[in-house]
């Protein structure tokens, strides 16, 4: 057996010569000595260091840590312990014996805590079993890994978000109108006052209606759909008088709009917090990145052979990408001034070209919107196809721009000489800007028509001759964008991806092999979802039923994308990293929410309400309902609300927020320093292990030379035992007894 030798210094503190040579001990001793002022203080520092240790060999510290870990293990349930069944049974028996010695009060507390823990676990299991698409998502995860799983999880989140938004709008806007006749409520409507601004001509078709006209109405939101719960203009109720309360529908409509936007913000920020924390602790060292990919990069959820091959190729691609990034960084560092000027000139010209392409797309959307509005106002009975194209012309132009520009951006980025990772991010940023800004250009085109009159200023505050109910017209445009986006997704899956799969599978020509199977590109699919959700956020104010339509739309898209992934597509060869996928998706969604809040805020606070439809007929703008309602409240409530909206409260709140922000920043800095210290400690432990391995090798060399002959003679009979004996004896003599004692007193 091993003989471990310790020595005791003059103060009586146990010391080990081998452990004193460890790099971590020497480094810590050097820092302690350099931070003290004199020899006496250095001696006392050494005494404290030797007595308490650096966390590796301090007896008291180790004992306290063991006691703490033992207490934590005793509090954990037995089934969560990493032990064998025999050990778990023994622990259970021991715990029951210890519980029998406790008082009845403590026994009741322990049993209550145990039952509550079981109830919590059962509730979590029951709720997880009710989770939407739980089985389908597990199948996708098992076949294609966590990268594609992140897209379908994001799609499920959008389904739940739109369902909650619909429930908010339905509960506070539609439900009171529905139950008012059943609850004997008196409904007060906004009546026509006879002015030119309150004229709202009906758009429903009369007489003999051809079948295709119903299809046009269904796709455009006009005709019989315009005067339904679907659009803003139907809600002409001002107040609903119940038996014990009066329901203010305009106030509820405005507060429900603010509520669904604020709820979306809170939910997105809460979900993105986890991804943001991961992004903060991402590897800063390229060597760590290589180690993580090699030793921890495999996705053990994959069970499909094809998916495993794709995962292997994706890991290979990521390693090549990292090496290429290192090569490009070195290339950038070695660039001359002439090469830098040339690269910057090329990038400047290409970015000017990109700006020109975006400007051309935006101008095309503007012209298409103006032409579509004029064609709808002046249309007569004509061709069904032509009428449908006039209705959907802005949506068609936006879709074509969203389809062409990403292809163009992917070609342009190859000439700008960026790193592969930055190429992907920069192309996605351009595509996000294109998709979301196109919706803003559409709204700007509509509002330029709404607020423009032949005689300035407008009599009603808006162009009542062209748009008697302009909110409904904006809602119809958002409705058409949503429907057309769904039609395009279905059409691409059926008429592009499926035939491409058949051609690649059954055709052996070189062109088909070069074309290849359709890739399931995660970022592009996510951008489609963000684009549709931004339209939903904008359109919900003008089309309260739009969240329900988007819920149904995303529900069917889930199965369409699942079938397409299983049968038509393959995972991308240039994968989007799953570690940062969720945070990127939610960050882009947050940008879409910010863009959606802008037009809704402008329409609520700046543009005059329609005087012929909607709940805000009695107000100049939609926002006026809030101060009007506050003015009818009791004086105490008014004083409180005015104080909360005053400048003094705003300044105080800003100061408190700044102080809290500074505290959080300081706390984050302290945590970062602790993380750096832990990283240094891990690196030092690696040096310690290397030092011990070197000592072990040094101890093995003399024994290998001395016992070479004996090992040859006795190899067949006792090779393992002789090796163990030589190793143990040699380790004792060469490592622990090779040092002369620092003092006459020794302890063996």
Strand and helix map with partners:
Blueprint (H helix, E strand, L loop, with lengths): L5 E3 L5 E2 L1 H4 L2 H13 L3 H14 L6 H17 L9 H16 L3 H26 L4 H11 L1 H34 L6 E4 L21 H10 L16 E5 L4 E3 H32 L5 H11 L8 H29 L3 H41 L6 H30 L6 H31 L19 H37 L3 H6 L2 E3 L1 H18 L6 H23 E3 L6 H28 L19 H7 L3 H10 L2 H60 L1 H6 L1 H22 L9 E2 L1
Parallel strand pairs: 6-7
Antiparallel strand pairs: 1-2, 1-8, 3-4, 4-5
Q: What is the strand content? A: under 5%
Taking all Cα atoms into account, the compactness measure Rg is 36 Å
Structural class label: mainly alpha
| Main sheet: strand order | 2-1-8
The tally of strands reads 8
Can you characterise this structure?
It is a single chain. The protein is mainly α and 748 residues long. The protein has 25 helices and 8 strands. The chain has helices spanning 17-20, 23-35, 39-52, 59-75, 85-100, 104-129, 134-144, 146-179, 211-220, 249-280, 286-296, 305-333, 337-377, 384-413, 420-450, 470-506, 510-515, 522-539, 546-568, 578-605, 625-631, 635-644, 647-706, 708-713, 715-736; strands at 6-8, 14-15, 186-189, 237-241, 246-248, 518-520, 569-571, 746-747. The strands form 3 sheets. It has a 3-stranded antiparallel β-sheet with strand order 2-1-8. Strands 3-4-5 form a 3-stranded antiparallel β-sheet. The radius of gyration is 36 Å and the shape is globular.
């Amino acid at each position: 057996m091993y003989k471990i030798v310790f020595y005791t210094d003059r103060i009586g503190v146990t010391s080990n010569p081998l452990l004193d040579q460890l790099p971590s001990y020497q480094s810590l001793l050097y820092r302690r000595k350099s931070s003290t002022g004199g020899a006496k203080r250095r001696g006392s520092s050494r005494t404290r260091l030797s007595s308490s240790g650096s966390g590796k060999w301090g007896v008291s510290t180790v004992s306290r840590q063991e006691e703490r870990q033992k207490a934590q293990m005793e509090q954990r349930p037995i089934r969560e312990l990493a032990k064998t069944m025999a050990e778990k049974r023994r622990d259970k028996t021991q715990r029951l014996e210890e519980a029998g010695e406790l008082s009845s009060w403590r026994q009741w507390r322990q049993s209550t805590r145990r039952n509550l823990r079981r109830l919590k676990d059962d509730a979590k299991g029951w709720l997880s079993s009710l989770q939407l698409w739980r089985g389908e998502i597990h199948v996708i995860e098992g076949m294609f890994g966590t990268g594609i799983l992140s897209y379908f999880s994001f799609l499920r989140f959008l389904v739940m978000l739109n369902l909650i938004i619909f429930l908010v709008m339905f509960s506070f806007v539609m439900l009171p109108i529905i139950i008012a006749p059943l609850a004997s409520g008196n409904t007060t409507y906004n009546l026509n006052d006879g002015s030119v601004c309150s004229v709202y001509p009906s758009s429903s078709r009369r007489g003999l209606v051809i079948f295709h006209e119903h299809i046009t109405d269904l796709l455009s939101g006009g005709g019989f759909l315009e005067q339904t719960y679907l659009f803003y203009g139907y809600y002409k109720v001002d107040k609903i008088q119940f038996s014990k309360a009066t329901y203010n529908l305009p106030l509820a409509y405005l507060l429900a709009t603010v509520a669904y936007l604020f709820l979306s913000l809170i939910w997105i920020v809460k979900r993105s917090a986890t991804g943001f924390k991961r992004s903060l602790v991402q590897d800063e060292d390229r060597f760590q990145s290589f180690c993580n990919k090699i030793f921890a990069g495999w996705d053990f959820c994959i069970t499909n052979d094809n998916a495993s091959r794709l995962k292997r190729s994706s890991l290979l691609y990521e390693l090549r990408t990292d090496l290429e990034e290192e090569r490009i960084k070195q290339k950038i560092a070695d660039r001359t001034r002439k090469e830098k000027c040339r690269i910057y000139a090329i990038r400047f010209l290409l970015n000017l070209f990109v700006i020109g392409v975006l400007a051309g797309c935006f101008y095309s959307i503007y012209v298409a919107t103006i032409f579509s509005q004029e064609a709808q106002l002046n249309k007569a009975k004509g061709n069904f196809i032509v009428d449908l194209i006039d209705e959907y012309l802005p949506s068609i132009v936006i879709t074509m721009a969203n389809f062409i520009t990403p292809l163009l951006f992917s070609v342009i980025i190859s000439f700008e000489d960026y790193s592969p990772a930055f190429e992907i991010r920069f192309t996605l940023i351009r595509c996000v800007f294109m998709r979301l800004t196109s919706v803003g250009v559409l709204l700007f085109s509509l509002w330029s028509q709404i607020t423009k009159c032949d005689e300035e200023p407008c009599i009603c505050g808006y162009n009542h001759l062209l748009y008697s109910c302009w909110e409904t017209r904006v809602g119809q445009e958002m409705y058409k964008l949503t429907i057309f986006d769904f039609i395009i997704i279905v059409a691409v899956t059926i008429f592009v991806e499926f035939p491409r799969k058949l051609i690649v599978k059954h055709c052996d020509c070189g062109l088909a092999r070069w074309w290849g199977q359709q890739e399931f590109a995660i970022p592009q699919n996510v951008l489609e979802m963000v684009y549709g959700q931004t339209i939903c956020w904008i359109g919900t104010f003008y089309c309260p039923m739009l969240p329900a339509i988007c819920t149904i739309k995303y529900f069917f898209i889930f199965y369409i994308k699942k079938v397409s992934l299983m049968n038509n597509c393959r995972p991308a060869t240039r994968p989007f990293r799953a570690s940062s996928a969720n945070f990127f998706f939610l960050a882009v969604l947050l940008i879409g929410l910010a863009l959606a809040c802008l037009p809704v805020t402008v329409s609520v606070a700046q543009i005059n309400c329609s005087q012929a439809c909607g709940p805000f007929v009695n107000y100049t703008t939609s926002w006026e309902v809030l101060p009007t309602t506050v003015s009818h409240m009791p004086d105490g409530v008014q004083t409180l609300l005015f104080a909360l909206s005053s400048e003094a409260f705003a300044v105080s709140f800003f100061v408190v927020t700044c102080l809290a922000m500074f505290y959080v920043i300081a706390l984050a800095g302290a945590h970062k320093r602790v993380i750096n210290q832990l990283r240094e400690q891990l690196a030092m432990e690696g040096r310690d292990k290397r030092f011990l391995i070197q000592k072990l090798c040094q101890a093995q060399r003399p024994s290998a030379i001395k016992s070479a002959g004996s090992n040859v003679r006795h190899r067949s009979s006792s090779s393992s035992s002789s090796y163990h004996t030589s190793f143990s004896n040699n380790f004792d003599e060469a490592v622990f007894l090779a040092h002369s004692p620092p003092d006459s007193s020794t302890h063996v």
